[in-house]
Amino acid sequence: MKKIKSYFSFELFFWITALIYLARIHPADAHFSLCVFQYLGISWCPGCGIGHSISYLLHGAIIKSVETHWLGTFALLLIVYRILQLLLFNTTKKQHYGKSILTF
Question: CA-CA distance, 32 to 54, in Å (whole number)?
């Protein structure tokens, strides 16, 4: 159990859960949101735009994704890179004289 726990960090769990959530929702439909702007009645929010763009991209609607927010593709690539980095970081962490060291 300790070995499995050492492979997963909160950040890794957060990003994977976020991508699964964005893949499961349809951005055009009403869905649960934590957006403060939406609760205040403001329709424009850059964070929601990127989330919708990533969701469209995960559904294969590339043109709609770019129309929603042009940074969505870049954000998705960055998140996937971070997930891979966290997975590789966790698998290459070694102990050296009782201290954790990083090997790349």
Answer: 16
